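Quick one, tokens below. Sequence please?
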């Protein structure tokens, strides 16, 4: 198993038993270590996480009737680790999200080892079948209409995530979209996936995403949107709302750039009206409150930050007037205008060093 477990069989059983007990009882600290967990002579059945709490902020997917939390877990860069690297904190992040009722996890074969990390942790927690898994296809094929590469990608994702079927499969960044969308429609008919979607993370592709929504061939769209980058409102979000298409948001925290830009600025007094206790909840609630948004995907490798994020699922959402006040306040903060000029994860460039960063560094060296 790729997830870092103790080396002996007895220690592994104790480790898993302790971790599963932690998840089941809702403890607030990290995974129980093999040294402190009670020994077990026989494996215990993995407990199921409680059903989604009725009092957390949720949205309905019009095409399927699914009710999902307004917050989901993203995995780009944050869940990509080199082979043998410690993953206990990522395990703990997933535990926090699951205990809070979060079931939506978004990943991709393009995200290095993220699929392996999610699959191993979810399996160890007995939560594999409880996840609403949103995955992606990044495929061209050897020739026009060749599905070999896409099929292999699907099969590898099934193995890594320990799932035969996926709730949502998305054409990643619109790559080969004219071929991939019809292929995914066939997979949907064959029962391999439940929903078909398209994604992108750059403003230049908003009109293209809106075009695919208006064609009536997608059930969901994933797009970049934040309090600092609201360009999607007039294109993708409007088209999705009119068509009844689910919207999953990437980059709601601008990959750490929002926190960097506002620095130590205090929250406004009116944040308390929404139960907001930190800036992460401020930014996430703004995104969640747009009527077209179904689920806001926030990625983190830090368990403490995970706890901050999931707090956004409690308390009221801002109405249109309060949303305008939220924008006005942050636009008056020093440094906020520079959000888009900052590098992704400005304080964590050395932290997220997985397969992706290693390959990028090797390519730069060759150039």
């Amino acid at each position: 198993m790729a997830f870092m477990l103790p080396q002996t069989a007895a220690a592994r059983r104790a480790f898993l038993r302790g971790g599963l007990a932690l998840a089941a009882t809702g403890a607030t600290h990290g995974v129980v270590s093999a040294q402190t967990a009670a020994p077990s002579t026989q494996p215990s059945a993995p407990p199921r996480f409680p059903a989604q709490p009725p009092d957390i902020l949720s949205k309905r997917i019009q095409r399927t009737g699914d009710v999902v939390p307004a917050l989901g877990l993203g995995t780009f860069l944050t869940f990509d680790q080199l082979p043998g690297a410690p993953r206990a904190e990522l395990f703990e992040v997933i535990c926090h999200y699951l205990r809070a009722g979060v079931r939506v996890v978004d990943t991709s074969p393009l995200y290095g080892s993220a699929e392996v990390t999610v699959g191993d942790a979810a399996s160890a927690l007995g939560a594999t079948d409880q996840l609403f898994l949103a995955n992606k296809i990044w495929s061209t094929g050897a020739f026009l209409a060749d599905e070999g590469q896409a099929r292999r990608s699907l099969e590898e994702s099934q193995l890594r995530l320990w799932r035969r079927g996926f709730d949502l499969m998305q054409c990643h960044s619109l790559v080969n979209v004219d071929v991939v969308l019809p292929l995914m429609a066939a997979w949907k008919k064959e029962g391999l996936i439940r929903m078909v979607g398209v994604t992108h993370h750059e403003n230049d592709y908003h009109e293209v995403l809106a075009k695919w929504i208006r064609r009536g061939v997608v059930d969901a769209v994933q797009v970049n949107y934040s309090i600092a980058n609201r360009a999607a409102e007039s294109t993708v979000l409007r088209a999705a709302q009119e068509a009844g298409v689910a919207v999953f948001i990437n980059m709601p925290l601008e990959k750490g750039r929002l926190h960097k830009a506002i620095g130590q600025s205090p929250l406004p007094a009116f944040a308390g009206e929404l139960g907001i206790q930190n800036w992460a909840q401020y930014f996430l609630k703004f995104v969640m409150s747009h009527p077209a948004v179904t689920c806001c995907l926030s990625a983190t490798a830090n368990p403490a930050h995970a706890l901050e994020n999931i707090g956004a699922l409690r308390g009221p959402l801002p109405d249109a007037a309060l949303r305008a006040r939220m924008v006005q306040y942050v636009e008056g903060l020093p440094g906020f205008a520079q959000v888009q000029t900052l590098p992704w994860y400005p304080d964590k460039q050395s932290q997220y060093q997985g397969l992706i960063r290693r390959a990028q560094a090797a390519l730069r060296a060759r150039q």
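Confidence is low (pLDDT under 50) at residues 1-47. Residues 16 and 124 are 7 Å apart (CA to CA).
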